[in-house]
Design goal:
Largest sheet: 2 strands, parallel
Order of helices and strands: EEEHHHHHEHEEH
Strand content: 5-15%
Shape: flat
Number of domains: 2
Number of helices: 7
Radius of gyration: 28 Å
Distance between the termini: 80 Å
Strand order of the largest sheet: 1-4
Helix content: 40-55%
Length: 218
């Protein structure tokens, strides 16, 4: 979503965006998972139709529908509408600013990239060709070797930093000033008397013949 708020994207064949479909945190099997908002709404509508066509299938749907909270469906609808509205507004006022057809172009891109069913997975990669086909302004870095090398040098520097240090987020400007968030590692020593003592392992039961021999010995 943030990438689509710019005036232009810089990409090459290795660059990618992803769908902007919202993910909802829902309980499942005593844990929480992220599920696409659109998939939740589609599943509910499928359940409605299935039960209307055959009421006997309600019993099979009840365990699935029971996990939906009282406001989950409305929250899904609001999240989907908001993500598309934000991207549509940013595209219209930045990337397509000054274009007499900006409203239609922004609507078309937001509707496409915000539809979960177009991609089937939140982690689906959207490459440069697909974005260009949809009218997104993308500069192909392969046309400017020097700029491409500079972009990948910066990306590599960040990647190495994240992989080899405790940094997990970096804010940096063109003046060389940076704010870096780090994960602080601490070693905490727990006194031996506070460590839960494990019970001794259970001894295996000897074979029947061995048990008889032990009884005779006693």
């Amino acid at each position: 979503m943030i990438a689509l708020s710019g005036e232009e994207l810089l990409m090459d064949e290795r660059g990618e965006l992803g769908p902007i479909d919202p993910q909802m945190i829902v309980p499942r099997d005593e844990q929480t998972v992220a599920s696409p908002a659109q998939a939740i709404r589609d599943q509910f509508e499928k359940a409605q139709k299935d039960v209307q066509d055959n009421p006997q299938r309600l019993a099979a749907w009840i365990p699935i529908l029971r996990q939906y909270g009282p406001s989950l469906l409305e929250e899904c609808a609001n999240a989907i509408a908001l993500s598309k509205q934000l991207v549509r507004t940013w595209l219209r006022t930045h990337m397509f600013a000054g274009d007499p057809d900006a409203v239609r172009r922004a609507q078309r891109v937001a509707a496409w990239i915000g539809n979960h069913n177009n991609f089937k997975a939140h982690g689906r990669q959207i490459g440069i060709r697909d974005l260009q086909k949809r009218g997104v302004k993308v500069m192909d870095l392969r046309t400017d070797t020097a700029l491409r090398d500079a972009v990948w040098a910066v990306w590599t520097a960040y990647r190495v930093t994240f992989d080899t240090t405790g940094a997990y987020k970096i804010f940096e400007n063109s003046r060389g000033e940076a704010y870096i968030r780090n994960v602080e590692s601490r070693i905490v020593q727990i006194p031996a008397e506070l460590v839960p003592q494990q019970p001794p392992p259970a001894q295996p039961t000897p074979p029947r013949a061995e048990r008889r021999r032990q009884r005779r010995a006693r």
